[in-house]
Each structure stands twice: as structure tokens, then as C-alpha cells.
Amino acid sequence: MPTLPYDTEALQPALSKESFDYHYGKHLQTYVDNLNKLITGTEFEDMPVEEIIRKADGGIYNNAAQTWNHTMFFDTLTPVKKEMPERLAGMINRDFGSVAQFRDEFLAKAAAQFGSGWAWLSVNEEGKLVITTESNAGNPLRGGLRPIMTIDVWEHAYYIDYRNRRPDFLKAVWELIDWEKVDGRL
Ligand code: MN
Q: Are the beta carbons of 129 and 135 closer than 8 angstroms?
């Protein structure tokens, strides 16, 4: 179970303590517990999670990917507003035109993902930044991309604080992203 780099009350009012009690304390904990149960006595038992995501299918894949996806999502948030480092901003300007256009495109794709899933910023094989969305536990590592940022768009991520208003959740979470960490993953 990953530890959070902030207190569960630290991101209020954007994300409530109650939402962390459920999303982190119950949903993520369940994925971690299920993964540990499912891999016991299998070839996956001592494998790094990234390798499980690339090789496994079914329940082991789903729980490994959900563990990894949530770890990146929670680890990318911060209560202290961070400026985007120049290296990342330069790549975003190159690949999306501007930081504002990148934000609009990312949030539009995240809002449009049908049903449960994730919106991702990744680096592709040519070193370009790409925005993709995945259903359910989907993870870009499977498609040869290197993910550096993600936002959870499962209803459980926003229903406590935002009910059905996914775009409002996305706009609020955007303000919590630690761009220094995203840059550090380049
Ligand atoms: Mn989630």
C-alpha cells in the first residue's frame, strides 16, 4: 500500500477527507489486497508491478494496474501549488502548441472517456508527449508508452465530492497537480 505524500485533509476543499477515506482507504486498499492474494504462489509473486502489468491478464492484471494507476494519481497531487518546470513546459509547447491548449485537450479527453477509466499523459517511442484515455484498469505501459501523469475518471473518484459533475472534478484536480513530479518522470 503506497503512502500518501500529504495528509488526507490536505487537499480540501477540492478533495474531501471523506473522499480519501473511500478512494484511498477502501478502493485502493482493496486493489492492493486482491493483488497480493491473487499473486501468492504464482509466477507473479515477486515480480515488479510494471512487469505484472505488461504480462498478466484477468484479475491479476486488473488489480496490478489499478494499484499502479492509483499510486501515480495520488502521488501526482500536492496541496502546494507548483509552477511547471521549463523542460516540461517546453515539450508541452512543442507537442500541443501551448500549456493552455494542452490543458483544454487533456480535460476534454478525460471528460469524454465513456464510463470508468483513466486519462494519461505519456511519452511515446519518439519522445513525444501524447494524451490517451483507457477504460477500466487500462494502463499505457501495455501499448509501449511511458506514462508520466494520470487522472482517475472512475465515478468513485468524484461522486462523493462532485456527484455526476466529472468536468468540475477535473478542473479542481488540475490545480492540484505537482508539475515538478511530472517533469521528474521525463
Ligand atoms: Mn480510483
A: no
Task: Say if CB 170 and CB 151 are below 8 A apart.
Answer: yes
**pLDDT tens-digit readout, 95-114:** 999 999 999 999 999 999 99
Take residue 98 and report the three cell numbers written for it: 501551448
Query: What pTM was computed for the model?
Result: 0.97
Cell numbers that stand for 62 in this block: 486488473
Residue 101: C-alpha distances to residues 87, 97, 124 (Å):
17, 6, 19
Any residues with CB less than 8 A from the CB of 19 and at least 6 apart, and which? Answer: 157, 158, 160, 161
For residue 90, the CA-to-ligand 1 centroid distance in Å is 30
CA of 94 to the centre of ligand 1 (A): 31
Dist CA 129 CA 139 (whole Å): 16
For residues 53 and 38, give the distance between their C-alpha atoms in angstroms, rounded to a whole number: 14
